[in-house]
């Protein structure tokens, strides 16, 4: 593997880990505290706003680096007919799911937070973030599986 390919894989994995880590942090640390009104709405809104930017930037970087790796490593038939190719396609579905969940849940929750509400949006959108966390973990597991079978 060339230095460029190694760098692309490293960037891909770092952004995936940062994205999933951010979602897990909001899910496990921020929203439970907000649900109990141990935080103010403004910092929670700011944190979810930053998570949206982390999500958008990570999704773009993962699209570019993942697209490069898929184009360099698979044919169309290889994506459909091999285990590693199927895992790549599964990763794309999980990537779309994680991006959509974070975007929708964060934007809807921030609307309520910006109106001064705290407990209700934290309670209402915590399940969305739990699902996003599970999708993120599945994304990382899928990446590990690709490394193992590929």
CATH architectural type: Up-down Bundle
Instruction: Give a short account of the largest sheet.
Output: none
Number of strands: 0
Separation, N- and C-terminal Cα atoms: 13 Å
User: How much beta, percentage-wise?
Assistant: under 5%
Number of helices: 5
Overall structural domain count? 1
Helix content: over 70%
Mean pLDDT across residues: 94
CATH topology: Four Helix Bundle (Hemerythrin (Met), subunit A)
| Low-pLDDT ranges | none
Reading the helices and strands in chain order gives HHHHH
Radius of gyration: 17 Å
Which CATH first-tier class would you pick?
Mainly Alpha
Computed structural class: mainly alpha
Q: Judging from the principal axes of the Cα atoms, what is the shape? A: elongated
Can you walk me through this structure?
The chain has helices at residues 3-35, 41-73, 76-81, 83-114, 119-149. The model has no long low-confidence stretch (mean pLDDT 94). The chain has one domain: Four Helix Bundle (Hemerythrin (Met), subunit A) (Up-down Bundle), CATH 1.20.120. It is mainly α.
Describe this structure in a few short sentences.
The chain is 90% helix and 0% strand. It is mostly helical and 150 residues long.
List keywords for this structure.
5 helices, mainly alpha, Four Helix Bundle (Hemerythrin (Met), subunit A)
Topology, element by element:
Layout: H1 3-35, H2 41-73, H3 76-81, H4 83-114, H5 119-149
Helix pairs in contact: 1-2, 1-5, 2-4, 4-5
């Amino acid at each position: 593997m060339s230095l460029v390919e190694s760098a692309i894989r490293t960037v891909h994995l770092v952004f995936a880990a940062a994205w999933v880590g951010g979602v897990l942090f909001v899910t496990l640390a921020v929203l439970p505290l907000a649900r109990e009104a141990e935080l103010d709405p403004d910092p929670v809104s700011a944190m979810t706003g930053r998570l949206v930017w982390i999500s958008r930037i990570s999704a773009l970087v993962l699209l570019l680096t993942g697209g490069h790796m898929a184009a360099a490593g698979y044919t169309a038939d290889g994506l459909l007919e091999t285990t590693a190719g199927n895992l790549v396609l599964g990763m794309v579905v999980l990537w779309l799911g994680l991006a959509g969940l974070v975007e929708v849940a964060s934007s809807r929750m921030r609307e309520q937070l910006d109106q001064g509400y705290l407990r209700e949006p934290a309670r209402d959108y915590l399940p969305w973030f739990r699902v996003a966390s599970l999708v993120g973990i599945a994304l990382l597991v899928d990446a590990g599986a690709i490394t193992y079978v590929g």
